[in-house]
Description:
Blueprint: E1 3-20, E2 26-45, E3 51-55, H1 67-78, E4 86-91, H2 102-117, H3 124-132, H4 138-143, E5 146-151, E6 155-158, E7 166-171, H5 178-187, H6 196-204, H7 208-213, E8 216-217, H8 227-239, E9 244-247, E10 254-258, H9 261-272, E11 277-281
Parallel strand pairs: 1-8, 3-4
Antiparallel strand pairs: 1-2, 2-4, 2-5, 5-6, 7-10, 7-11, 9-10
Helix pairs in contact: 1-2
This protein binds cytidine-5'-monophosphate.
Amino acid sequence: MEIQEKAYAKLNISLDVGAKRADGYHEMVMVMQTVSLCDTLSVRPAEDGRLSARSNLRFIPNDDRNLAVKAARVFLEAAGESGRGLLLELQKQIPVGAGMAGGSSDAAAVLRALNRMAGGRFTRQELEKLAEQVGSDVAFCVAGGTALARGRGEVLEALPSLPDCTIVICKPEFSISTPELFRKLDSAPVRHHPDTAGILDALERQDLRAVCRRLYNVFEDVGDRRMRTVAQIKSRLLDHGALGAVMTGTGSAVYGVFTDADAAARAARELRGEYRFACVAEPVGRLME
Ligand code: C5P
């Protein structure tokens, strides 16, 4: 039996970083949004009894360094089926090293798929607990939608959905390493913080413009030379009529929010000619209740 599952990308509506904790992780406050750009996962039993992954991208590891494999191992262990062989096949569309939780989303899709195969044995809350063992962003990706994430990113609260809009996502050639950017932040304290309370209030009122005025990511202010390119892409999105634009996660992808789908399509077309990746996407609601 083969089972398929979509692994959706996430964007940060806001990203705030607080103190570094004793365990080396940073205290985060993030408003997150699932979007329609997605990888496709298919899972099938492996005759050789091995657990492995395969993907359309050659540079992605197929062993335990792949979060999808790690997630399957964590799931099988919790289900008491550690010896089971599975082939996880990933059709990647989400750019790698972009701040869109591509690897985490694949891992969460594995948890949902294996749970479906097991007849819904675990609840959403239980899957989120398993997800925490895999990586900081994986728990959010289990149910997705619009959510406030705290702690390492695993303490979640569902929020009212982002109002309808069209999102243009653009990623420049370079990728940014997550641990590297956290280290930079440690040597230069955060000067400005996002207005998280204002974003929560705007979502409550379903005021898209008020949300977009508050898009903010503290990583844009770490004094990294590459943020100049990020700022250039933001300007281009705003010139095309975006209500707001911001970098997602630790970058390097940047997105802009549009109410005019035609303007969004024009922006994506133009940016695609200049940068490595550009696409149009829409917000996606919660995947599990
Ligand atoms: O948990 P995950 O493996 O996704 O995190 C990758 C790296 O990002 C960590 O090793 C750490 O350097 C950094 N990180 C952090 N604080 C967080 C999340 C991630 O410092 N809340």
